[in-house]
Amino acid sequence: MSTQIDHLMNESRKFAPSAEFAAAAVASADLYESANANRDDFWATQARELLHWHTPFEQVLDWSNPPFATWFADGELNVAYNCLDRHVEAGNGDRTALLWEGENGDERQVTYAELTDEVSRVAHVLEDLGISVNDRVAIYLPMIPEAIVAMLAVARIGAVHSVVFGGFSADSLRARIDDAGAKVVITADGGYRKGKVSALKPAVDMALADRGNGVQETVENVLVVRRGGNEVEWQEGRDLWWHDVVPAASAAHTAKAFPAENPLFILYTSGTTGKPKGIVHTSGGYLTQAAFTHRNVFDLKPESDVYWCTADVGWITGHSYVTYGPLANGATQVIYEGTPDSPHPGRWWEIVEKYRVTTLYTAPTAIRSFMKIGRHIPQKFDLSSLRLLGSVGEPINPEAWMWYRSVIGADLAPIVDTWWQTETGAIMISALPGVTETKPGSAQVAVPGVAIEVVNEAGETVANGDGGLLVVTEPWPSMLRGIWGDPDRFVETYWEKFAAQGYYFAGDGARRDEDGDIWLLGRVDDVMNVSGHRLSTAEIESALVAHEATAEAAVVGASDEATGQAVVAFVCIKESHKDVLKDTDALVKNLRTWVGEQIGPIARPRDIYIVTELPKTRSGKIMRRLLRDVAEGREVGDTTTLADTMVMSTIQSKVTGKK
Ligand code: 6R9
Questions:
Q1: Second label for 118, Cα 20 to 30 Å away, from 141, 426, 516, 653?
Q2: Does any ligand 1 atom lie closer than 6 A to the CB of residue 395?
Q3: Of all atoms in ligand 1, which is nearest to the CA of residue 423?
């Protein structure tokens, strides 16, 4: 790795936890000690302490057939019982589980007792529809309490859910239903997004329309929640209204025990090829690590905290840190249906104020978009209840980290930058609040019980100060158990590169600094090679965002005859600095010089395009692949997973107009 990425590593600011926070912290340094002493014993202890086992396990990890692991395989549990009934039995039935806020201002509060009843009813309904152990149920819902109810009802009867994000098209839904062979789809008429009802049921109808290609339809029933109130078409015999069948079902439902390795869910994630991968997670190990990390990384005090993870349940973050982790731990959490700026740009902060949110877990892309609008919006609200902030999904630039800390966290709340993936199931790298001294921009250290290394192409651990590839060197409880229906792809994608060492290859570039702290440098396909120097997109983006006028930046490597690759940047300007747009040539020149000063001349972008939006997936990840197409003058590839498909044509016209 060249010295060019030193820019990021020169970050010398450190923030020790306050004595007060540390004294009351849930996590302690002892966790590392006991995990290091014996990893398997450590996880066995966590599994026993955090979960209820109908049949206690004897076996912990079985790694005799790598990369196919089992955890706690002879134990039995019920995941929904762990998230619901046991809290009621412990006397906490009146505790609020969900504080739901609809985008249109509707509100619902659901206690643990009520949630248990509702999940039990839906479990009966699903059983009456013929769903049993291992059957697949697709869930295609907005962020309403029923989304969580549906997931838990499927889990309760030992079936497997496949949640499909409500923003995905009928085609994407069709592909996911087919791949998993789902028997039931749970959906809604529609939900509120950006101030209006966005319909969902028509996409289900379209997905299930007769394709005339002889493929056998697996879906027998569609269960429909009324939320949007929009008109929907109805197929008698197939479609059922939730409000007709659920309230009529009994709230008494016995949660049966299932083996710990019973599949809990499939979640599709995009890979390097077109076909999405159905990542498979199982029950006991997954729930153990989701609950452990949720408790320790978010310093959870279930009696007093109000936790809010802004992710949709359509993503892994919503699975592990909205549904499973928080509910297993008996937390009280906010669920918000809509977009951050509906009906006004302060909506999130209004919600924090209203519910006295203590813990906020969100993505850098959201933070940067709030930076872009300006601090005067959050400053209108009382955010003093916030005591801990989390980040996930992308590297968080030091500038965004500092803004998050000072504007949202009043310079007091610790920030945990959590690295993990759909495949890892739960958080793998993060500071422990109250224990770790935090550093802006670095995810820092593996959580207790997880073994991470940064290695070179030969699989050798790099020295502190050097960069390489991020690997997980030991199996972990919430690891993916495979790709649905494709064991070969599972082995090839994650385990072949470091087969000799038996390491899991995450696909991310990383570097350890002199303290041994880990810095994520983006996907390895986002690493550029300019005149033989390795440059990371994350590093140049950080430099650009550190400029006072920049709100957000995306950098790609475009092929270049002279230098192999050249740096091409796409930059959004802050509302408060719109004046600089009067002279874009001067602005571009200024930004190039700035990057040169920040990192070195080699990192100066060949081209800088000033744009109003960046292309992002619906989970907020910048789609650099598309920007690379533009930068290299190619036709832009598949844009169907973009949140806003218009963005690319706007950018394209900007770029061609310039040339
Ligand atoms: C949880 C989630 C996984 C990819 C991962 C990495 C990036 C996630 C990050 C991060 C830097 C962090 N990523 N968290 N990069 N710092 N704190 O996002 O899962 O959607 O599967 O994405 O996201 O590149 O490989 P998923």
A1: 426
A2: yes
A3: 21
